[in-house]
Write a structure and sequence with these properties.
Blueprint (H helix, E strand, L loop, with lengths): L3 E9 L4 H13 L6 H18 L4 E8 L3 E8 L25 H8 L2 E6 L6 E8 L2
Antiparallel strand pairs: 1-2, 2-3, 3-5, 4-5
Helix pairs in contact: 1-2, 2-3
Length: 133
């Protein structure tokens, strides 16, 4: 099945935008959608990572579906590093750290995820998919 574009929106790269992004997604897919809770959580994590780890001033979020999966893209203006999952062995204090688990959550809950550097330009598209049925 061909992907159906559900919507897109640009958010300021500010932590206060996470609530607006969750509300936007909920309005877009509806609170009864089977992926709504996980999608809102993972969108918050992906958006927070883009805000924290890039120099972006704005971040675009796109939602599509192919009928069986909900796909979310988070597109930022790029950074010197690329996304990677932190494991407990990455830092001695990781077990008590207050952050650093966003990609681990995404890896655990999403059926698929990944990233693509955008060319031309410094941008990066991070995406994840969740079951839509």
């Amino acid at each position: 099945m061909t992907a159906q574009h559900l919507g897109s929106r640009v958010f300021a790269a500010d932590p206060s935008e996470a609530k607006a992004a969750r509300r936007w997604l909920n309005d877009l897919i509806g609170s009864a959608h089977p992926a709504q809770t996980d999608a809102a959580l993972l969108l918050t994590e992906a958006l927070s990572n883009a805000i924290k780890h890039t120099t972006s001033t704005k971040i675009e979020v796109r939602a599509t579906t192919d009928g069986s999966h909900l796909h979310i893209d988070v597109i930022d203006e790029g950074a010197a590093t690329v996304p990677h999952v932190r494991r407990h062995s990455d830092a001695p204090d990781n077990e008590t750290a207050l952050d650093g688990r966003g990609l681990l959550l995404i890896e655990t809950l999403a059926t698929d995820y990944g990233f693509q550097r955008l060319t031309p330009g410094p941008g990066l598209r991070f995406w994840f998919s969740l079951p839509a049925i």
